[in-house]
Amino acid sequence: MSRTTAPSVAPTAAGGPGRPARTAAGVAPARGGSPATAPAAGHGVRPPAVGTVTAVRRAARAELLKVLTLRSTRAAVLVAMISLVVLAAFMAVGSVVQEAPPDPSLSAADVVLGATVSGVTLAFYAAATLGVIAVTGEYASGTIRSTLAAVPRRGVLVAGKALAVVTVVLASTLVAAVLALVTVRLVLASGGVPTATDPAVTARVVVGTALHLSVVALVGSGFGWLLHSTAGAIASVVGLLVVLPALAFLLPRPVADVVRPFLPDVAGAAVYQPVPDLIGPWTGFAVFAAYAAVVLLAGAAAVRRRDV
Amino acid sequence: MIEIRDLTKRYGSTTAVDHLTVTIAPGVVTGFLGPNGAGKSTTMRLVLGLDRPDSGQALVGGRPYARHEEPLRQVGALLDARAVHPGRRAVDHLRTLAASNGIGPARVREVLELVGLADVARSRAGTFSLGMGQRLGIAAALLGDPPVVMLDEPVNGLDPDGIIWVRRLLRSLADEGRTVLVSSHLMSEMALIADHLVILGRGRLLADVSLADMIASTSGHVRVAATQPDALHSLLRPHATLVTPDGDALAVTGMGTEQVARLAHDAGLLLVELTPVHASLEEAYLRLTQHDVEYRAAVPDPTDLRSAAA
């Protein structure tokens, strides 16, 4: 098309203090030539190739920064950690000071590990909330538009956010679970209660606690992408993982017996319970993770389809 | 370079952008003009891939925006100054964007300096005024040092200093050879910023014209007043195409200020006012868009009032 360039209407402004430095660090090294003579990235002038893996890693780093730079998300992490440690300590103190003789059917391992994971049901809500608000906070504030301008591949964004949420929840609750275990041992030992446990089971319970809560947070993120609303997403997490399995009581007994182990409450708890009853710890975890995968994939599909 | 080809976007029964085809060239500031609801913001959102077009496509640097590996190094956009979490510090907001595009922390400090927010970089974005929010948005747009810059109403909420700063910034960006697309619904602002105008109305392209051509296509007039208005009127009447009273002065069409001044001087008339009037650019814009204004205040027609009174 033909176009005449009009005389500049603000000729004095050129080269003013507002002129950005083009040679600055961190600035597209691949775009060759002076921009005044070779303007705009045309064909043949390509940015450095970035594969999907790099893109996801960078998105995950950005999302991790986001989670760590907001008070609300930091608070959710802290609440999850405090829930695990404090409730475990309470439970341990309770076992020491109780009047009645210890239940003889309970082994030392049951007492120690049972106390260690007593905060999981409370930390569940903090982890779910973190997963939810990491996503819905973007929609509520409008940040999602900046985010998608920076990471326009929506699958990459959902994956990056999921990785960031898992990293934060896994690391923080792993630390908290170890602290809970140590606290429980110290309290019980000081009360003369035996604390010997099977190291393999102990490790599985501690790691399982962190894994379980990470998956809970992912379910939260998935519902966040699906619904964009904080309240709606939190209600959905609770609905799927807590309320829905409770309704299994309505099923006829033979059906319920078959279905129960695969419901999210039983399957989800298996990985952190000292002695899982209806399903093996890792099978249970795989089933639980599958719930998260379904919700997260549904969320990703919704994000890909919708306008922002 | 931004190439928009046959772009259409409908929201329900409303057509926000209607078969728009236009190319935004590098090296000049292009004013994206139109009444509220004309489709300017929607077009920008479509360019960024935030919304999906019903037909057509928008290419930046030869490909769709989302196909660029590090898109912030291709297009810097300010769509909405409020697209920042109010609880996050300004510097952290920019760091997260930088991290996702492999841009180093040094550049974050640089753009904060550039927009004048270095001193408040550690304040939460929610504490910012609208003007500071705009500056943060512009900082984000410049983060990747992109060859294409797209700003939606960047002077909104800025103080006079800020407005002049934005004008200079846009000018220097264009002078560096970048593609600069800046939207506004005010012709007067565009007349000061833009070299080229792309005017939309109800999602359709109304004009794709240089500012110079736009000015040339409109006839201005001269406002002139003298101590002896009647003598001035009869003096100018034979030379001008039109002389009409304009308050205490005369509006003269078809003559330049110098010609008016010479005639008055030779006739010994004392001029007390001589003003070239450029409101015609605004008028030309209004004429162009008057059928495409979506929300118009109801102005009662005098004839309706009369018939109602009768």
TrEMBL record, chain A:
<feature type="transmembrane region" description="Helical">
    <location>
        <begin position="75"/>
        <end position="97"/>
    </location>
</feature>
<keyword id="KW-0812">Transmembrane</keyword>
<feature type="compositionally biased region" description="Low complexity">
    <location>
        <begin position="9"/>
        <end position="33"/>
    </location>
</feature>
<feature type="transmembrane region" description="Helical">
    <location>
        <begin position="117"/>
        <end position="141"/>
    </location>
</feature>
<feature type="transmembrane region" description="Helical">
    <location>
        <begin position="162"/>
        <end position="188"/>
    </location>
</feature>
<keyword id="KW-1133">Transmembrane helix</keyword>
<feature type="transmembrane region" description="Helical">
    <location>
        <begin position="231"/>
        <end position="251"/>
    </location>
</feature>
<protein>
    <submittedName>
        <fullName>ABC transporter permease</fullName>
    </submittedName>
</protein>
<keyword id="KW-0472">Membrane</keyword>
<feature type="transmembrane region" description="Helical">
    <location>
        <begin position="282"/>
        <end position="303"/>
    </location>
</feature>
<feature type="transmembrane region" description="Helical">
    <location>
        <begin position="200"/>
        <end position="219"/>
    </location>
</feature>
<feature type="region of interest" description="Disordered">
    <location>
        <begin position="1"/>
        <end position="45"/>
    </location>
</feature>
From TrEMBL, chain B:
<dbReference type="InterPro" id="IPR027417">
    <property type="entry name" value="P-loop_NTPase"/>
</dbReference>
<dbReference type="GO" id="GO:0016887">
    <property type="term" value="F:ATP hydrolysis activity"/>
</dbReference>
<dbReference type="InterPro" id="IPR003439">
    <property type="entry name" value="ABC_transporter-like_ATP-bd"/>
</dbReference>
<keyword id="KW-0813">Transport</keyword>
<dbReference type="GO" id="GO:0005524">
    <property type="term" value="F:ATP binding"/>
</dbReference>
<protein>
    <submittedName>
        <fullName>ABC transporter ATP-binding protein</fullName>
    </submittedName>
</protein>
<dbReference type="InterPro" id="IPR003593">
    <property type="entry name" value="AAA+_ATPase"/>
</dbReference>
<feature type="domain" description="ABC transporter">
    <location>
        <begin position="2"/>
        <end position="227"/>
    </location>
</feature>
<comment type="similarity">
    <text>Belongs to the ABC transporter superfamily.</text>
</comment>
<keyword id="KW-0067">ATP-binding</keyword>
<dbReference type="Pfam" id="PF00005">
    <property type="entry name" value="ABC_tran"/>
</dbReference>
<keyword id="KW-0547">Nucleotide-binding</keyword>
